[in-house]
Design a protein that fits this description.
Helix 4 packs across helix 5 (about 130-140), helix 4 (about 115-125) runs parallel beside helix 6 and helix 6 (about 155-170) runs parallel beside helix 7. The protein has a six-stranded mixed beta sheet with strand order 6-7-8-3-9-10. It has about 240 residues and is α/β, with parallel strands linked by helices. It contains eight helices and ten strands. Bound molecules: adenosine-5'-triphosphate (ATP). Adenosine-5'-triphosphate binds near residues 33, 51, 54 and 57.
Amino acid sequence: MDQAAVETALASTALALVDVTRSFSEGERELHILRGVDFAIQPGEMVALVAPSGTGKSTLLHIAGLLEHPDSGDVYVGGINCAELDDESRTAIRRNDVGFVYQFHHLLPEFTALENIMMPQMIAGLAKSEAAARAQELLDYMRMGERSSHRPSELSGGEQQRVAVARAVANAPRVLLLDEPTGNLDPETAHYVFEALQALVRASGVATLFATHNMEIAGRMDRCVTLKDGHIIPLAL
Ligand SMILES: Nc1ncnc2c1ncn2[C@@H]1O[C@H](COP(=O)(O)OP(=O)(O)OP(=O)(O)O)[C@@H](O)[C@H]1O
C-alpha cells in the first residue's frame, strides 16, 4: 500500500499504532519491550489484550493513551497522527478522546460518585448542571443510580469500578483503555462490571482495548490479541 492509501485506512480507525517501539534500560541491559507494534481498533470494537505479566501491556496502553511517548513510531487517535503534535494538543486529545480505567479505581475519596464523574466534564468546560445530568445518566446506565451520593469508601469494589468506567466515558471519548480493571474483583463481580461496560460500549460506539488475565471475559470481546516478542498478534482462545 502506498502512503496515501495507508493514511486513508488510518483515518477511519479510532486508534492505530504504527511501527511503535519502546525500550527500557535495566543496568547494562536494554529491554526491548515493544519492537514495532502495528495495531488498529475500529470505532465500537472491543478488543482484549491478553499477555503474560511483564510483556508490555501497561507500556502499550500508556503509549496508546498518549501518557508516554514511544521511542519511534506513530500513534493515531481518531485518524490524527499524535506524534506530530505539540504537548498542548496531545493533552487536549488525551482529555477529550481517551478514557482510562485502571486496576485500582483512583476515584477521588473526598468526592461522591456523581462528583467524580462530573469532574472530567467540568475540566472540559461543561456547565455544572449539564455535567451532573450526564453523570447521573451514566450512573443509571451502570445500574448505580441509587449510589450517586456515596463516596468511594462507601461503595464495594465492583461498584467503585463501575463508577470508574462511568468517569472514563464521561467526556464521550473515542477510545477507552482498560488496564486489568477487574483484576482485583471476584469472578462474579468482574463479570457484572464487564456486562455493564459492554452495554456502554455497544451504546456509545467507543473503541475499547481491555487488558485482562480473565479468559472468560476476554472470550466475550470482539477479538483477542497478545504481545509476543514485542509485537501485537491475534490470539485464538
Ligand atoms: N519506566 C520503566 N523503566 C524501566 N523498565 C520499565 C519501565 N516501565 C516498564 N518497564 C519494564 O518493562 C516491562 C513491561 O512492563 P509493563 O508494565 O508494560 O508490563 P505488563 O505486561 O503490563 O505487566 P503486568 O501484567 O505485570 O502489569 C517490565 O519488564 C518492566 O519492568
